[in-house]
Amino acid sequence: MRLSRSPRRRCQRRADEAGTLPVVMGVVFVVVLLSTAMLTRVMGDARNVAQETRMAQARALAQSAVTDALFQIDQQGSSPASFCNEPASGGACTLSSIPGAPGAVYTARWNALTGAYTVLARGTSLGVTSAVQATISKAAYLSDAVYAGSFVTFNGNSTTHVTVTDQYGNAVAGATAGIAVGPGGTLTCNGPSDPNAVYHNYGGSISKCTPYENLGPVYDPQQPSATCPAAVNPYGAPTTPCMPSSPSPCTAMGSAVAGTDATGYTVTGTVATPAVLEPGIYVCRGGLTMTGTVNVDYAQNPQQNGGRVEIFVFPTVGWTTSPNITMNSATVNACETTGTSGSGTCSGGIVGDPTDLVIYAWGSGTATLGGGSADAILWAPGMDLLLNGSSSSLTWTGSLVLGGSTSNGQPSFNLNLDERLQTEYTQSNWKISGYLPTSSSFAIP
Q: CA-CA distance, 184 to 10, in Å (whole number)?
């Protein structure tokens, strides 16, 4: 018997092939859709990146305009209102062609009442515009011999002896030095007022201290910042100091510096062998103590950091314990040229420049200074100073920025406000004190 192939299988295979075709076409369609969507997304991302790039370029041009305005204003010296690049009216000065920054324009408007400029800057890149408004002001960096944010109290017969001196240590006739309290603080004289002092009130209160002045705008030094740039001082002035990203370790100041971050550092000198500090920027973590005679190396050649020693005192990394500053048995920066070493005076020489040694201390630790003398600036707006009786005598040439200061009994509290400090710090460089985005629709005169 001969068996023949059944035609039914052939029909079933054709049916299977016919059913597969729509599936394949569906897969192809889905792939095409996904490819189209991906292409659309990639093109959209490319457009967004291009737009962001143009916006970033426009923003950079606007910032370049502000930088140019700051530079131009800073060149005016003691006559800031004379800044004007092109003729304009109403105290507005404009620059519409900045070298290296095509598409950047700005106008700077001087306000004689506030002593500041408002800069409106605009940058345009490939049709995209960005604009910023900046306030450029010359905020006083240091304005008083003693400033305390919370309190300054002179009890009993306690008083200060305040003198404004020249670079040779001679008193400047008729000059007065400020003792100030910040916003919300109190300045109290239960003892006699100092005839050479003028008491300044920046938003606090003054009791029995005369003569006094209520001043504004508010001046309130803030804690030094461990990073740059520092946050803008909410009170405007003074500018908050900040530690650069790569300061030298504390022990790099000189061979007389010893200690560790865990224990703090000690600078030890003697009358015969003063400790010599090399100009530069340093960080001392855990605290700082100075004993004996401590001078700045004025002979360093070439001088680093403009011949200035700047010391930042912060807690050990990872710790929150506030460091302390101790200088109660030190004679710091006694002489710049000739004189009797360790005596605190210079025979015919220039007295140590207080602007050449600046200590920025963070936290609410204690400033133990009574019994010492220094030509320096101590910036410690969170620390308190206590002087008790004659054993706590203190002679300080420069400026003390503190959280609080109390004088009991009859301590010898001698404060010399060196003219060089006023010249350098009151006439500080112009700085950007306010910065925010703004509409680009402002008019350029």
A: 100
pLDDT confidence tier of residue 339, bands split at 50, 70 and 90: very low
Which amino acid, one-letter code, is at 152?
Answer: V
Q: What does the alpha-carbon distance between residue 397 and residue 163 come to, in Å, rounded to a whole number?
A: 9
Q: What letter represents residue 368's amino acid?
A: T
Cα–Cα distance for residue pair 235/433, rounded to 1 Å: 10
Distance CA(165)–CA(39), nearest Å, equals 76
What are the boundaries of each domain within the chain? 20-138, 146-426
Q: Which of 332, 344, 254 is nearest to 292 (CA)?
A: 332
Amino acid sitting at position 274: P
Q: Are 409 and 157 in contact (CB under 8 A)?
A: yes
Q: What pLDDT digit, counting tens, does each position of 83-139 carry?
A: 664 445 455 566 666 766 777 888 888 776 556 788 888 888 888 888 888 888 765
pTM of the model: 0.67
Burial of 97 (0-12, 13-18, 19+ CB in 10 A): exposed
By three-state DSSP, how is residue 168 classified?
coil
Q: Round to whole Å and give the CA distance between 142 and 422.
A: 8
Compute the chain's Rg from CA coordinates.
33
Question: Would you say 380 and 221 are in contact if contact means Cβ atoms under 8 Å apart?
Answer: no
Torsion angle, alpha carbons of 289, 292, 297, 299, to 10: 180
d(CA 121, CA 134): 8
Q: How far apart are CA 364 and CA 384, in angstroms?
A: 8
Selection from 194, 138, 142 nearest residue 417 by Cα:
142
Please name every residue paired with 107 in a beta bridge, in sequence order, or none if there are none: 94, 120
Rounded Cα–Cα distance for residues 106 and 95 (Å): 6
Residue reference for tokens 């503190």: 402
